[in-house]
Write a structure and sequence with these properties.
The complex is a heterodimer of chains A (262) and B (307). Chain A is of the alpha+beta class and 262 residues long. Chain A has six helices and 13 strands. Chain A has helices spanning 2-28, 128-134, 144-157, 221-232, 234-255, 257-260; strands at residues 34-36, 39-42, 49-58, 61-68, 71-82, 86-99, 102-105, 136-138, 161-164, 168-172, 177-186, 193-203, 206-219. The longest helix of chain A has 27 residues, at 2-28. Chain B has helices at residues 15-32, 37-46, 51-75, 81-108, 111-142, 154-161, 178-194, 199-209, 214-239, 245-268, 271-294, and strands spanning 3-6, 11-14, 165-168, 173-176, 301-302. The chains are: A alpha+beta (262), B mainly alpha (307). Chains A and B meet through β5, β6, α3, α4 and α5 of A and β1, α3, α5, α9 and α10 of B.
Chain lengths: 262, 307
């Protein structure tokens, strides 16, 4: 009976210990994370932006940053071989609940392969492989591994899905702390909207703290005006666009009158 | 400062690059009387513009280029307005019919395969025929051979028998008014099915089936393209919100200039030279399409829409 009681106490301690330690560390860690700016304006001459994320972490900690957008369903055309020789669009394929944007920024010591979710509880499951596991594809009979790999290629070609290795840099401050810094390059293809910037602080391969911030991208000035006209007064917009094109064509025709003649 | 943000495409773009692209495609329009969508749309897609936005914004800029080009050709006396209007009537009816046909074909399945193969074969046939025919024309002129007086073909005799014979002064021909309406209709159907403007099909149709002189063909084709693209721009803007006016504006600044220069070049070239150059262009487009069909693509997924 006494032996059983001791065993129960040991089991309970072993089970609760990691959770207690994460909680304890989570409270202890002071990160002082800064994100600058948290609002990007898309003006007439906008060509992408830059966001800096920085802060302080314990000297033995690692930092991973994730920039992600809202999830959505994406319907795409699948290319395949017809008659064994011609590459053509053969069917449609839908990727469900995939993030609009997904970019990871890693420190030099962590490669993307560590984030696949295959390392038990050690690393956060935020790599492309883990994203694949969260995604469903219809029709269901598709080769998920292959199609998801093609999906990543397509999104990467637009600059909105990326794994940036060696992107988080550190600088030692004292025996206990170091500072980290990361520049997030925002491509112009990221539409206006609200995105999430998550900073994962890891110690001994485990996430001990996460920090979530909102990054807003908003059209202003001329782009905002044109978008509003195009979506809210579509017919008028179409007519104005046509009239301006007609006017420009006539104007050039008139300007070239002297040289074009009989 | 050298980039502009395109609010509908959701992408920024280099101003000089788009200006030069507009100028180049405008030049081709002015020389050959084609809209140039076959070239412009894939190039815009390569620059990261979504396919549907690329095609619709291109239509918007063609409005400017074809206005400028029609005006330039009109001054040279190369626009047959009467013929253009009949072709247009047929084109509008055919285009509407084509949209329905494509829906039925898609519902039957495998339509894309059928369309692409027909497109490639047609480009190959039209380009090849035009190339050989104009080569023969250039050769016979070079050797100062007397023009071969051909026996009137069965086709020529047949079209002379059609009712409603009308004289088209600018083109210097007499054909039934049903000819341009029916041919315009067929081109309209094909253009709607293939998702292209139709200049490429319309120009050879005018040359070989209506037997119009090459220079009048170029001007009249541009006149007709102008109306088609006005219609497409307003329809696309109002139903699909795919017209990016900023993109169209930079393109048209280049293309309206290019088309004026093209019209001058067109005037300087002989009919056979024009035909052989257009034939080479048509064959190049065919070869490009054939390669894209035969070579495995880098990415086996694509967004919907575009040409």
């Amino acid at each position: 009976m006494r032996k059983q009681l001791i065993l129960i106490i040991i089991m309970a301690t072993v089970t609760w210990l990691p959770i207690m330690s994460i909680t304890a560390e989570a409270i202890d860690i002071q990160t002082n994370i800064q994100m600058e700016p948290n609002l990007i304006h898309i003006g007439a001459f906008y060509n992408g932006g830059q966001v800096s994320v920085s802060g302080e972490v314990p000297r033995d900690a690692e930092v991973i940053i994730r920039l992600s957008g809202a999830t959505q369903d994406v319907e795409l055309l699948k290319k395949g071989r017809v008659l064994g020789v011609l590459w053509m669009n053969t069917a449609t394929i839908t990727f469900h609940d995939v993030p609009e944007v997904y970019m990871l920024y890693l420190p030099p010591s962590i490669p993307e392969s560590d984030l696949s979710g295959d390392h038990g509880q050690q690393m956060p499951a935020i790599g492309f492989d883990s994203l694949k596991n969260l995604t469903t594809i219809t029709p269901a009979g598709e080769d998920k591994d292959f199609q998801f790999q093609e999906f990543i290629k397509l999104k990467a070609s637009e600059g909105i899905y990326a794994v940036n290795e060696n992107a988080v840099s550190y600088r030692n401050m004292d025996a206990q702390k170091k500072s980290f810094a990361c520049e997030l390059a925002i491509p112009s293809s990221m539409a206006q909207g609200v995105y999430s910037v998550t900073t994962f602080i890891l110690k001994d391969g485990k996430v001990v703290k996460t920090d979530n911030r909102q990054l807003k991208i908003k059209e202003s000035g001329l782009p905002a005006m044109i978008s509003a006209l195009a979506y809210d007064h579509a017919v008028l917009y179409g007519i104005i666009a046509t009239l301006i094109a007609l006017g420009a064509g006539l104007l050039t025709g008139v300007l070239f009158k002297g040289g074009g003649g009989h | 400062m050298w980039h502009l943000y395109l609010p509908i495409a959701g992408h920024s773009i280099s101003i000089p690059l788009i200006f030069i692209l507009g100028g180049f495609v405008g030049l081709l329009s002015g020389i050959f009387g084609v809209g140039g969508g076959f070239l412009m749309t894939p190039l815009l897609i390569m620059m990261g513009i979504p396919p549907t936005v690329a095609a619709a914004s291109d239509s918007n800029q063609i409005v400017a280029a074809s206005t400028s080009g029609t005006l330039a050709h009109y001054r040279m006396g190369n626009v047959d307005f009467k013929m253009g209007i009949y072709l247009l009537i047929g084109g509008v009816v055919g285009g509407t019919g084509g949209v329905w046909i494509i829906k039925i074909l898609r519902a039957m399945g495998n339509a894309d395969f059928l369309i692409t193969v027909t497109y490639v074969l047609m480009l190959g046939f039209v380009g090849g025929y035009m190339f050989l025919e104009s080569l023969q024309g250039i050769r016979s002129k070079a050797h100062e051979l007397p023009p071969v007086i051909k026996k009137e073909s069965r086709y020529a005799r047949l079209i002379k028998k059609l009712p409603g014979q009308t004289h088209f002064e600018k083109s210097g021909i007499e054909v039934s008014i049903f000819m341009p309406i029916v041919l315009g209709g067929i081109v309209g159907i094909l253009a709607a099915i293939m998702g292209v403007g139709g200049g490429f099909i319309m120009v050879p149709v005018m040359v070989y089936l209506l037997r119009m002189p090459m220079h009048v063909v170029v001007g009249t084709s541009l006149f007709q393209i102008l109306f088609t693209c006005v219609n497409v721009t307003i329809m696309q803007a109002s139903t699909n919100h795919t017209v990016d006016f900023i993109l169209a504006l930079i393109l048209l600044l280049g293309s309206t200039l290019g088309v004026q220069l093209g019209a001058k070049i067109s005037k300087k070239l002989g009919g056979d030279q024009l035909k052989i150059l257009l034939a080479i262009l048509v064959l190049l487009v065919m070869v490009k399409m054939l390669f894209s069909l035969l070579l495995p693509p880098d990415i086996l997924l694509a967004y919907k829409g575009g040409h």
